[in-house]
């Protein structure tokens, strides 16, 4: 019935255009348009979450109303994911980087699968193969750049890695160009538009998924706290917005996501700010979370020992006058407060996670509505696919990276030394002599 109605609509459009003398398409062309439009509805081809769990749990929940069943399933899976995430944190930064890579691959797969289903009937050659090839190429470039930035000395001292470090960008470019040439050779007459559309689809997916997950990885290398706090804020906001909306939600927030309410949005925002302050205060006391991972030249190994940066050292701040006056009314001498600067920065991150972060989810909701699907997949019962859970995380990771680079990051003497040590011996001596001469001219180094 739906196909008949769609065919009639397509035919009516072409008939009207033909009457205006602007359309000369044949019935075969009408069938082609119909086939494209019918495949935009991917809900019948893409696995959708039905909340199905294990047989034991399904049996326990068979008499529970759908609303409460979904709540219970989501709660159980959320607790399991948080527990698993905590275990990975205990394994250290390398384990987290591997986890991000695996999640990135799964998210890429979910989005590429939608594109593949939309144009599946055309049997376009090499689409999936080239998509995965470009994913591998992009990861080789981005991960290689990060490895050289943080562990360049270690890699340059490894004989078989030295050429890869020296010619990394040329190798990356060559790999990409090979894929580009392969795409051109794969072009088929009558399918040019569809193939170029999917070529763009792949590259936009790489921009959204690979680039932003790369920034998330760099946040980890700057110190686990720059990864854990933002990620936890998004998780908290997602959970608390869901709970406030579930129990108190009455006012719709946005048409793209009908289940979102103003009560959930506001309640989740306040809860996230409070949670962010508490979590930041706890984590900032541990060097394990605040020290970046670096290559220690003395130990000849990776290390997370460091001299704490400014934002992780206690500082005294003068309180605003109205707070001092309020303290005087209570008989308290409130003039200064001593705290870690990172706690103040956490407020900025929590506000972003609460106000802007959800728009990553709204964007994903609009994307799913365009293809008439409810979820990106059915991997996580009660939640959908991986992309359904990590849409906001990608946007948050980009914000934290930009925020850290703009307001926090300072030139690190350790990294400068690493860069110098990665040079050739004669170049290292040249840097030493130039620095020595400069210090002498400014009177910072004695001639003796």
Distance from first to last alpha carbon: 94 Å
| Helical proportion, percent range | 55-70%
User: Low-confidence parts, pLDDT < 50 over ≥5 residues?
Assistant: 1-11, 13-34
The share of residues in extended strands comes to: under 5%
Biggest sheet statistics: 2 strands, antiparallel
What is the radius of gyration computed over CA atoms, rounded to a whole number of angstroms?
Answer: 27 Å
The residue-averaged pLDDT reads 82
Based on Cα principal axes, name the global outline: flat
The computed structural class is mainly alpha
Strand order of the largest sheet: 1-2
The helix/strand series, from N terminus to C terminus, equals HHHHHHHHHHEEHHEEEHEHHHHH
By DSSP, the count of extended strands is 6
- Continuous helix count: 18
Describe the structure.
The chain has 18 helices and 6 strands. The protein has 448 residues and is mainly alpha-helical. The strands form 3 sheets. Strands 1-2 form a two-stranded antiparallel ribbon. Strands 3-4 form a two-stranded antiparallel ribbon. β1 and β2 form a beta hairpin. α1 crosses α2, α5 packs antiparallel against α9 and α11 packs antiparallel against α14.
